[in-house]
Write a structure and sequence with these properties.
five-stranded mixed beta sheet, single chain
C-alpha cells in the first residue's frame, strides 16, 4: 500500500510537469508527438480529437498491438497520450526538438523566448503547485499571512537542502532509501502529510530540472544560446542532449537497482 501511495505522488507530479510542457507547447503551436507519463515501452496510448460537429473521435493502442480505429491513430499531427511502466519521470516529445524537420511546428523554428517558455513550463508548474500545496496546509494551521511567510522560509530551506544533496550525489556520498523503506514511510500517512510530501517532492523535482545538465530543462536555454555561435550548432546541441539523456538513463537505472534491493 505504501508503494502505491508513493507512485501516486510521482504520477501526479510527473503529469503536472509534462502537462506544463504540453500546454505551453500547444499554445505556441509546437507539434507534440507523445505525452508520456513514465519511461519505457507503451502500456497504453490514446489519440483523440474533436470534430467540427463536436463529435469526439479517439483511438487507443495497447503496447504495440494493432490500434483500435487505426485511421485516427495514423494521423501524425495528433498527440499520443501514453502511460509507460517506469515512473521515474516522463517526457513530452515534440517535433523538431533539436533538429529541424522543415515544419513550422518544429520547436527549433520558434523564437528563443518561445522555446525557453516551453522548456521551463514544467519547472514552473511543479514549483507553483508545490508551493501552493504547502502554503494551503500551513495557512490552514496558522493563518493566511503568517502561512505565506512560513512557506517562503520552508521553501528556502528546501533550496539549501537540495543544493547539499546534489553535491553529495555527484561526490558519491549519498544513501538511497530502498523500496521497502519507502513503503514503510508512506504507509499510514495522513492526508495532510501526503499533501506536504507532494509539495516537497514537486518543488524538488522542479528545482532538480533547473540544473544545467544536458537533457534537463535547465540546460536548454543555455544550449540554445550557444548553438548560435557555431554553423553546426543545432547538430552539436542535438548530440550533447543525446549524450546527457543516456547518462541520466544510466543513473536512473543504477538508482532503481539500489532502490529495489
Amino acid at each position: 500500500m505504501g508503494l502505491l501511495i508513493f507512485f501516486s505522488l510521482l504520477f501526479i507530479i510527473v503529469m503536472l510537469h509534462e502537462g506544463g510542457h504540453l500546454v505551453v507547447a500547444k499554445m505556441n503551436k509546437v507539434q507534440v508527438n507523445v505525452f508520456s507519463i513514465g519511461f519505457g515501452w507503451r502500456i497504453i496510448g490514446i489519440k483523440f480529437y474533436l470534430g467540427r460537429s463536436g463529435c469526439f473521435h479517439f483511438s487507443c493502442r495497447l503496447f504495440n498491438f494493432k490500434p483500435y480505429n487505426p485511421d485516427i491513430w495514423n494521423l501524425e499531427k495528433l498527440t499520443e497520450y501514453r502511460i509507460a511502466p517506469i515512473f521515474l519521470g516522463g517526457f513530452c516529445a515534440m517535433g523538431g526538438e533539436t533538429k529541424s524537420t522543415g515544419s513550422k511546428s518544429d520547436l527549433v523554428s520558434k523564437s528563443y523566448s518561445q522555446k525557453v517558455c516551453v522548456a521551463l513550463a514544467g519547472v514552473g508548474v511543479n514549483v507553483l503547485t508545490g508551493f501552493m500545496t504547502i502554503y494551503a496546509v500551513i495557512a490552514s494551521k496558522i493563518g493566511i499571512v503568517e502561512g505565506f511567510s512560513k512557506t517562503l522560509k520552508y521553501v528556502g530551506f528546501m533550496f539549501s537542502t537540495l543544493g547539499t544533496s546534489i553535491v553529495d550525489l555527484f561526490s558519491g556520498n549519498v544513501q538511497i532509501v530502498t523500496a521497502s523503506e519507502t513503503a514503510k514511510i508512506m504507509t499510514g500517512l495522513s492526508f495532510e502529510t501526503y499533501l506536504l510530501m507532494f509539495g516537497v517532492f514537486s518543488i524538488t523535482l522542479g528545482l532538480f530540472n533547473l540544473i544545467p545538465f544536458p537533457a534537463l530543462d535547465g540546460s536548454l536555454p543555455l544550449l540554445w544560446l550557444a548553438e548560435k555561435f557555431h554553423k553546426n550548432g543545432q547538430i552539436i546541441v542535438h548530440r550533447v542532449i543525446l549524450v546527457g539523456f543516456i547518462i541520466l538513463m544510466i543513473l536512473q537505472l543504477i538508482i532503481l537497482f539500489f532502490w529495489l534491493r
